[in-house]
Design a protein that fits this description.
mainly alpha, 2 domains, 10 helices
């Protein structure tokens, strides 16, 4: 007997939309890829793939929704961090650690962001930039400026620092093939994450702090 297709999202189980997004995220994380097949998504989620059309329009819409989910969380975290009464050095250390945790959880994120910006029309690319990239750049401008004013950070370009920090946090977790062929492991363990978090914080902070 063939599987009955739901007539509307109302016929789907509660939380079906969120389950589709989380399953797509898990598939890309585990496979170290920036794409999914709808058949695997259906198999892994236990949901009819027709729900992708109902909730997102098509697979591209699902990818945009996944990017929105993950990037909105990052922007909210950064906004909350910037609202705290903290010393610039402490704030930056916490932010670097949070970035490493983010890319451990969603190692596909930066590649997905770049792919969607590249493949989207101008309006959608502008929406992504204004919604997510611009707020992050503004936060970095303020974070670095505060540290420079207080004499704890060297005078550096906040834009270049953004790419340095995000690149360091992202690259390690999006290089599973390098880990596999050079270091005989391709498993992103929590111990590996913790070690890399400490390394990134120490290494990046050493480059921005004013020598004592």
């Amino acid at each position: 007997m063939s599987e009955a297709k739901p007539d509307s999202p109302n016929d789907a189980p509660p939380g079906a939309r969120e389950l589709l997004l989380e399953t797509a995220s898990n598939i890309m994380r585990e496979g170290d890829i920036v794409d999914i097949s709808l058949s695997e998504l259906s198999l892994r989620s236990g949901l009819n793939s027709a729900l992708v059309k109902y909730y997102f329009g098509n697979k591209a819409g699902l990818m945009r929704a996944l990017l929105d989910r993950d990037m909105e969380d990052i922007v909210q975290q950064v906004d909350a961090l910037m609202a705290k009464d903290m010393a610039p050095e402490d704030r930056l250390r916490r932010h670097i650690g949070a970035m490493v945790d983010t890319y451990f959880k969603t190692p596909y994120l930066n590649r997905l962001l770049m792919r969607l910006v590249r493949e989207s029309d101008d309006d959608e690319a502008r929406r992504i930039a204004e919604s997510y990239l611009t707020p992050l750049h503004l936060a970095y401008n303020r974070l670095i400026s505060d540290g420079v004013k207080q004499g704890v950070f060297r005078k550096i370009n906040p834009q270049l620092f953004y790419f340095t920090a995000t690149g360091a946090a992202d690259r390690f977790f999006s290089a599973r093939l390098v880990l596999k062929h050079c270091y005989d492991t391709d498993t992103l363990t929590e111990d590996l994450r913790d070690s890399y978090r400490a390394h990134c914080i120490d290494f990046i902070m050493a480059g921005i702090l004013v020598p004592k």
